[in-house]
TrEMBL record:
One of its GO terms (cellular component) is cytoplasm. GO terms for molecular function: histone deacetylase activity, NAD-dependent; NAD+ binding; protein-malonyllysine demalonylase activity; protein-succinyllysine desuccinylase activity; zinc ion binding. This is NAD-dependent protein deacylase. NAD(+) binds at residues 8-27, 87-90, 171-173, 197-199, 215. It is found in: Cytoplasm. The gene is cobB. SUPFAM superfamilies: DHS-like NAD/FAD-binding domain (SSF52467). Binds 1 zinc ion per subunit. Its cofactor is Zn(2+). Residues 1-229 form the Deacetylase sirtuin-type domain. Belongs to the sirtuin family. Class III subfamily.
Length: 229
């Protein structure tokens, strides 16, 4: 069975990482135009680096939760061809044992040269004066996909959805496209669709089925059901 799983910030919420749009979320406390757009980075790179340095430290001190571990278990079961796509820029899926993980919004653990597009492991603290080690004059930025930029790996993700038997969205609000539209592509491909979330997302009506509750409970329960089939 071919399963495509899309995760969002909700799967990492119980690991202590804030989500974006829940009450008190990151986009309530910060202006995303300043922190998650190329224009914001050009205007004030120090502010953007401070934000991602803080997120990098928070992720470093966080642990994968039972939802991450359950997906890693599912990925290891050879009866299922699992494509794990995440909108998250943290590495909690990898630290739970998932491999591969497709980061469609990049990861803040990698630095990107705004000039030559060279990539290297991001230092704990990135600073506006950091320059690219390859071309030496390009400005270093976090390798994350900002609003207005093209998500990564769609050439892998879209065919996987087109051939999937089951599409599962976990902990995502269904606000940001193209990820929010994946459920329609899965339905068009004839796949069953399932939403696992704390509450109905903005795309809830597009799913065949849903289970609500904290990811650390709902995801392991769903995976155990699948693996005992
Ligand atoms: N268990 C399961 N789901 C949860 C939990 C939890 N413990 N806590 C919150 N959620 C759900 C919320 O109900 C919501 O649907 O997680 C979702 C979080 O939504 P957002 O904060 O919008 O995060 P996400 O959907 O990942 O955002 C998508 O927006 O800002 C951009 O690039 C950023 O990748 C991000 C994208």
């Amino acid at each position: 069975m071919r399963i495509v799983i899309l995760t969002g910030a909700g799967i990492s919420a119980e690991s202590g990482l804030g989500t974006f749009r829940d009450k008190g979320g990151l986009w309530e406390r910060h202006d995303l135009k300043d922190l998650a757009t190329p224009e914001g980075f050009a205007r004030n790179p120090a502010l953007v680096h401070d934000f991602y340095n803080m997120r990098r430290r928070t992720v470093r001190d966080a642990q994968p939760n039972p939802a991450h571990h359950a997906l890693a278990r599912l990925q290891k079961d050879k009866r299922y061809a699992v494509t794990l796509v995440t909108q998250n820029v943290d590495d909690l899926h990898e630290r739970a044992g998932s491999d591969p993980v497709i980061h469609m919004h990049g990861t803040h653990l990698v630095a990107l040269c705004a000039g030559c597009a060279h990539r290297w492991p991001a230092p704990e603290e990135m600073r506006p004066q950091d320059r690219c080690p390859a071309c030496s004059d390009g400005v270093a930025r976090p390798d994350v996909v900002w609003f207005g930029e093209t998500p990564y790996h769609l050439d892998e993700i879209l065919p996987a959805i087109a051939e999937s038997d089951l599409f599962v969205a976990i902990g995502t609000s269904g606000v940001v496209y193209p990820a929010a539209g994946f459920v329609e592509l899965a339905t068009e491909a004839g796949a069953e669709t399932l939403e696992l979330n704390l509450e109905p997302s903005y795309r809830a009506s597009a799913f065949d089925a849903a289970r609500f509750g904290p990811a650390s409970e709902v995801v392991p329960a769903w995976v155990d059901e699948i693996l005992s089939a």
